[in-house]
Amino acid sequence: MSISLVVIIGVGVVTTLLLKTRRVEAHCDTLDGPVVQAARKALADGNVLHALKWVRHDDEEEVRKAFELARKVSTLGMDAKEVAERFFFETLVRIHRASEGEPYEGLKSSDTVPPVIRLADEALDTGDVSQLSTRMPDHVKRAIEEKFHRAWELKGHAENSLEAGREFVEAYITFIHYVEGIHALTMGVHPHKHLR
After folding, report:
1. Degrees to nearest 5, angle at CA 172 with 171 and 177
2. Is residue 41 pLDDT above 50, yes or no?
3. Contact at 8 Å (CB) between 41 and 33?
4. Residue range 60-74, pLDDT digits in tens
5. Which of 3, 31, 74, 136 is most buried (CB neighbours < 10 A)?
6. For residue 46, is it left (φ>0), alpha (ψ between -120 and 50) or beta?
7. 3-state SS string over the chain?
């Protein structure tokens, strides 16, 4: 696989995560997302390290305390176990989201995850990126074209009224930020804060 194809794939996946509505795109906060999967694994085998990789070093203590409490309460019956697990999932996801500079908005169902993000996760699970790599170039091209055409269409009416002008500005910002995000990622600038 050529480097440029890998870059396009990476750009598309990360840009999708970064530049669309965060509430819809975040998949770390879904019940079957990677953070909750790590929390489930940690609780199942008693090894908090599965969960700690998703948080900054400075946040380990809070996660460890939540883990120990969840394990202790889980022994008090099925209802207690369910509540304790949910508490641990929410704590881990909340702290992880904060490490990304994002608010915690609760745990979400898996149907909020875009198909392309599912393909990215599947590629990492299976070691086969072919399904993702064949889809991404078209996805990025289509997204650029859609954002461009929306801004172009509204630009012609931007001077007609303040409302039309603001509608154009919103479309302009969406288009330009998307292109800037792709450019930043291809140039090695990663605008997404993470666990450092």
Report:
1. 105
2. yes
3. no
4. 999 999 999 999 999
5. 136
6. left
7. CCHHHHHHHHHHHHHHHHHCCHHHHCCCCECCCHHHHHHHHHHHHCCCHHHHCCCCHHHHHHHHHHHHHHHHHHHHCHHHHHHHHHHHHHHHHHHHHHHCCCCCCCCECHHHCCHHHHHHHHHHHHCCCHHHHHHHHHHHHHHHHHHHHHHHHHHCCCCCCHHHHHHHHHHHHHHHHHHHHHHHHHCCCCCCCCCC
Cα distance between residue 67 and residue 73, in whole Å: 10
- The answer to whether residues 14 and 45 belong to one domain is no
65 and 139 within one domain: no
Give the rounded distance of the alpha carbon of 79 from its chain centre.
30
**What residues make up the domain containing 193?**
1-20+114-196
Q: How far apart are CA 69 and CA 167, in angstroms?
A: 50
- State the pTM of this model: 0.65
Q: Do both 30 and 102 map to the same domain?
A: yes
Q: Show the tokens assigned to 14.
A: 């990360």
Structure tokens at 131: 């399904």
Domains contained in the chain, number: 2
In the predicted model, what is the mean pLDDT of residues 17-31? 59
| CB neighbour burial string for 109-128, b if at least 16 within 10 angstroms, e if fewer | eeebbbebbebbbebeeeee
Examine the domain organization and report whether 122 and 195 are in the same domain. yes
